[in-house]
Amino acid sequence: MLRTMRFPYSPDAGLLLLRLWFGGLLLVLHGSGKLLHFASYQGEFIDFLGLGPTASPALAVFGEVVLAALLVLGLFARFAALGLVVTMGVAFLAGHGGALQGADSGELAFLYLGAYVALLIAGPGMFSVDAWLSRRASSHPI
Questions:
Q1: In this structure, what is the dihedral angle of CA atoms 71, 38, 99, 22, given to the nearest 10 degrees?
Q2: Which of 44, 65, 104, 138 is most buried (CB neighbours < 10 A)?
Q3: 83-108 pLDDT tens trace
Q4: pTM for the whole thing?
């Protein structure tokens, strides 16, 4: 009979990897560029819900920089994941028309969306600031 190895922290290590991978890549590859070149994005961004040419890219920058950084840290992770689910949902459905193939494919936004939904459901895991704060609060009751 084949025995499989089981690592005691495997699920938590997997959640850490998901947070670092998808939060870090969104922050570095997408959010930082939008933040540094914010003015140039105002004219080419979709005007989601009629928010205007400044509010729509500002919300995207907030999601792709602030929420992605919170997710990487695992601080307010479910809140960050929820905000990123909304951000990637808007990017996929409104920005790319829900297309998974073709010239204006939203495949990448859809992949990010799936990772953020998984993190929203599972939480950040034990290797997170949220878990550290929870452990600290339970060991030092008021």
A1: -20
A2: 65
A3: 999 999 999 999 899 999 998 899 99
A4: 0.88
